[in-house]
Amino acid sequence: MNLLDNPSPEFLLEQTAGSSMFSSAVPGLQTAWNSSSLTPLKICPRRYYYQIVLGYQPSRENVHLIFGTLLHLGHEQYAKHIIDHPHEEAITIAVEKVLHAAGARKKTKTCTSCMATYPPDFIEEKCPECHGGLELLKTWKPWRSEDEYKTLPNAIRTLVWYFEKFRDDWLKTIELSDGSLAVEIDFKFDTGEPGPDGTYLIFGRMDRAAYYGEDKYIIDIKSTKSSVDYGDYFERYSPDNQMSMYSFAANVAHNIPVRGVLIDASQVTVNFSRFRRGMALRDHNQLEEWYADTIQAIRRNEDHVEARHWPMNDAVCSLWGGCPYRSVCSKSPAVREMYLKSNYIKRDYDPLKARDI
Amino acid sequence: MPDISHYQSTQPVKALYLGDSGAGKTGSLVSLIKAGYRVRVIDFDNGIGTLIHYILKECPERANDFFYYTATDKLRNVNGRALLQGPATAFTRALQMMTHWKVPDGEDLGPPSEWGRDHVLVIDSLTHCSHAAHRLDSSLNGEGGALENGPHGSIAGQAQTRVEAMLGLLYSAEFKTNVIVTAHIRLIEGEIDGARKGLPMCVGSKLPPVVGTYFNNAILAKTVGSGESARHVIKTVSEGIIELKTETPLDMPKEFPLSTGLADFFKVVTGGYEPGKKEEAA
């Protein structure tokens, strides 16, 4: 019996133990949903199972996640500091924060002449390169990307060019009711929809909420290697689970009646960065429809949980650049568990707990 | 199968009203007001003065039932370029009015989609409406609302989609109010045969050919002849490079005098419907 594809209740409880997103009473039942878990569920239940329930992700470094995190950090810091700092100073602060976050100070044996670095337990007394003296120092090691586009220098360039282009931006960050700026805004609300173990929650984090004129929007920062000319890029966000969730949550959780999401896209290439903004508008009817469909998807998951089986949606495996778990599903069921353990890594994914939402 | 022998359309009139600048499109709306229609205009052209002049001269008793909303952005001249003075809000404000007509410190007329057959919502004009949509995207993208790269540049793509979504809203069966959208004319080469056609002037190159698909009626305000013998008319039959259409081609005269044309046109299309005979909520 393939434990992976026919999990026992004990196996499921073990996989989700400690995660505040999952029920501790009903094996495999997710009770708190965010965009990162709802989207794979809506795409393919099997993908959701591997990615969220079991927590497996591709073992290759997720360059896009790291690059995106750095961009978000830069935007967040600029938005917070432009309030009481001049434009150039706000940029400097943002870049400094990103550089700090993009590396780590590590102990190395460092050549005092040519600055070559070696492991701290390096046994030679002289630098093999230039024969200079070696000293045990703490040096800053920047993140080195495996991708030629999404690198640390390109992240810095993208941020600086963006802040210069939008120096006189009409988007103004909203102030929340507690006086804080609406930047990196957490949200959590109880749907009131009863499940096998209490009611379902929806939670997440939005990049920013801002005014444009009298209208309010959620701002979502995206980065891509592809062209951001409209028609090719922005159409994918309507409809879109994440954009609809943010629009809904802004209204429900923060009482910010937004017209939708303004997607702030950066195209990142080797030699330049380019920027384009587009809207994913949502009216009241669209948001009601999204909510109803989302609850339905969560209800269907209850069936998967009860059956302890999350079926494949084998019509979408090749779409959108290919599912990251296609190589698992393409294997015979008997060897999938072994393949998954060999080629994917498990992560502790509990943003609900990590952000203390 | 339904008995169509007594069919009479109860659907609202959705009309695209073409014409060069100065042909009299805006002023000719007065005939609808005189016929009893309750006309509300979203004015992108900032040219409502002509219509108000006609109303006050020809049917002042109807003046209190005429409403308009001017949707323009504030512009300033910067080295010969028309740039925004503040954020671009005309297009989004106008869209909000099309969803619910409520003016701050002013009238609240409710959702235009529910007004009904006695009402006419006028978008004057599609041309400047699409400029407003284009300015919105230009401003959001840090270009100050400039329309350089023409209205046909890459940034026009978003504006085209936005305007087409607006047309879809007005055309939908759920929008139970008569709609007139005015537009200036632009000559564009046809995709199939390369022949030039007179199409609605609006942002981009992909939108003009599809605008007509959102209307069951397309009519043209035109000046025929010149000097003292010039006649101002509304044409209903295609001529030359401008294609026109109507829901009732066999009953529709080829042209009407501009001064009464819109009211005459509505009478034919609606099978003689007379507004105001039934009470309707405003």
Description:
The complex is a heterodimer of chains A (about 350) and B (about 280). Chain A is an alpha+beta fold. In chain A, about 35% of the residues lie in helices and about 25% in strands. Chain A contains eleven helices and twelve strands. In chain A, α2 runs antiparallel to α3, α4 packs antiparallel against α5 and α7 crosses α8. Chain A is globular and about 65 Å long. The two termini of chain A are about 40 Å apart. Chain B has about 280 residues and is an alpha/beta fold. Helices cover about 25% and strands about 25% of the residues of chain B. In chain B, the strands form four sheets. An eight-stranded mixed sheet of chain B has the order 3-2-8-9-1-12-13-14. In chain B, strands 4-5 form a two-stranded antiparallel sheet. In chain B, strands 6-7 form a two-stranded antiparallel sheet. In chain B, α4 packs across α5. The mean pLDDT of chain B is about 90. The chains are: A alpha+beta (about 350), B alpha/beta (about 280). At the A-B interface, β11 of A face α4 and α5 of B.
Q: Which range does the strand content of chain A fall in?
A: 15-25%
Helical proportion of chain A? 25-40%
Radius of gyration of chain A, in angstroms, nearest whole number: 23 Å
**H/E series of chain A:** HEHHEHHEEEHEEEEHEEHHHEH
Q: How widely separated are the two ends of chain A?
A: 39 Å
Total beta strand runs of chain B: 14
Instruction: Give average pLDDT of chain B, whole number.
Output: 89
Instruction: Determine the strand fraction of chain B and express it as a percent band.
Output: 15-25%
Q: In DSSP terms, counting alpha (H) and pi (I) runs of 4 or more, how many helices of chain B?
A: 7
Q: What's the average pLDDT of chain A?
A: 91
- Percent helix among the residues of chain B? 25-40%
Task: Please compute the radius of gyration of chain B using only Cα atoms.
Answer: 19 Å
Element pattern of chain B in H and E: EHEHEEEHEEEHHEEEHEEEH
* Main beta-sheet annotation of chain A: 7 strands, mixed
